[in-house]
Amino acid sequence: MAAAAKSDGIWETVKTIVYALLIAGVFRTLFFQPFWIPSGSMKDTLLIGDFLFVNKMAYGYSRHSCPFSMCPFDGRIFGSDPERGDVVVFRHPTEGTDFIKRVIGLPGDRIQMIDGLLHINGTPVELTPEDPFEEVYERQGPQQLPPRCANEPVGEGGICLKDRFTETLPNGVSHSILNITNGGRADNTPEFTVPEGHVFVMGDNRDNSVDSRFPQSVGGVGFVPMDNIIGRADRIMFSSAGARMVYFWTWRSDRFFRAVE
Which ranges carry the Peptidase S26 domain (predicted)? Predict the structure, then answer.
């Protein structure tokens, strides 16, 4: 009797674990996917170490909505298009990794950077200067990479500065962007026309972002197919400035539950 009772207990434990994994898998596939910010390409909207849940209901579902892109259908179901200014997580068209950027251009839009100023359909966007973005010059996050600074060189522990502006898109969406240098190839581009079924994405940290300004042939992102969009980043749930999440003294409590704008 004791052996049978022990066997039943083990079986119940196994079933509980299997059910929990199934529920977690369904939740991750249909509703929210966790995402950890690994790089500084979206500063100061998103910092290295921000942890958020991606809203997968926002744009419907494609094969990339399932882990390992295993959803058994083509196209998108229950789909809706992102709006200009949305911060989205998407599967890179060729590398198979997940990126997070801001949607700047929609199908048919003409996008160009001229002397560091974004132009949409031939019209420059509105820029409002803000106070510089400041951070300590130190190695950040699990990758332990130092930030890039407009006031280089900066010694360890010094204040790293970046020029900051509020950028207002044609639909009225405003967000912060950062500038480190002037005159690079990211600041002066050809005019891109966004094809049907795609979006043009950029990082808010404009001089430190691999995005649609660079074609896939040179390691960039290029135009992102709508079907590759996994979901929208709506809210930061947790944030840690340290190399490990368990380093509680590096937690940024002021960023907990902050909306992504």
Answer: 11-237
What does DSSP say about strands 198-202 and 32-36: parallel, antiparallel, or unpaired?
Answer: unpaired
For residue 246, what pLDDT is reported? 79
Residue 128 is encoded by which pair of tokens?
């409002």
Instruction: Name the residue type at position 117.
Output: L
Give me the phi and psi of 188, to 5 degrees please. Answer: -140, 110
What letter represents residue 217's amino acid?
S
Contact between residue 79 and residue 99 where contact means Cβ atoms under 8 Å apart: no
Structure tokens at 75: 């196209």
Peptide bond into 153 cis (omega under 30): yes
Please tell me the distance from the alpha carbon of residue 238 to that of residue 243, in angstroms, as a whole number.
14
Rounded CA separation 209/199 (Å): 16
Nearest CA to 186 among 213, 162, 204?
213
Residues annotated as part of the active site: 41, 101
161-183: pLDDT as tens digits? 999 999 999 999 999 999 999 88
